[in-house]
Amino acid sequence: MQHEERLRIWIEQGNVNISQLFFHHYKKLGIQDIDAMLIMHMTAFQSGGIQFPTPTDFSDRMNLTENEVSMILQRLMQRGFLQIVQSKDPQGVLVEIFSLQPLWDRLVDQLALQANESEEENQKKAEGEIYALFEQEFGRFLSPMECESIAMWLDEDGHSVEIIRAALKEAVIAQKLSLRYIDRILFEWKKKNVKTLADVERQTKSFRTIGPRPDQPQQRTVSVKRVPFYNWLEERD
Questions:
Q1: For the chain, how big is the Rg over CA atoms in Å?
Q2: Residue 86 and residue 96 in contact, taking contact as beta carbons nearer than 8 Å
């Protein structure tokens, strides 16, 4: 995805606070503390122009022997966090360098997974609230069949929670609180590709500005201004 690619580029260019991103998530990736420290030293080496630091370079900065550094490097490569790739130096000479790109890929995947889990959790919460809203408007508990109908709107028909809530609002305005009426609204909206609240507003506004039909008598005086509504169960030519 485009935003993921930008994140990778920002990380490689040093424009993202790697310590925040990395330290918040490396444990979830299964990276040991000592391995994480070596990775941070590697980014520091590479930022300083040393693209292929040796075990000796790491050992000079860390309380590790060269053999211990070699074991960590091998472990990171075996687990798919680090790889050795070929690149060209400023003189155009082909050289080997360490690449942490696999780690950044895994980090981005972890962030995306958490975002998806959060979105799914919010969706489940919203779906649970829609049942409570129906019971509140109906003034009673929903029957198992009614609950199944709402579940079908969500799962099979693909209606969003906000669209179902808007259809319920239409039924309340029309004083026709029945799942049959709401189902008809959703059916008509789906035919007209109504998917957002903005679409709903345009759709209902167009119906409410049509005015009375020719066969409907117009009242001379109106004591109370009422909000007109569209009867979704009434067939129109």
A1: 31
A2: yes
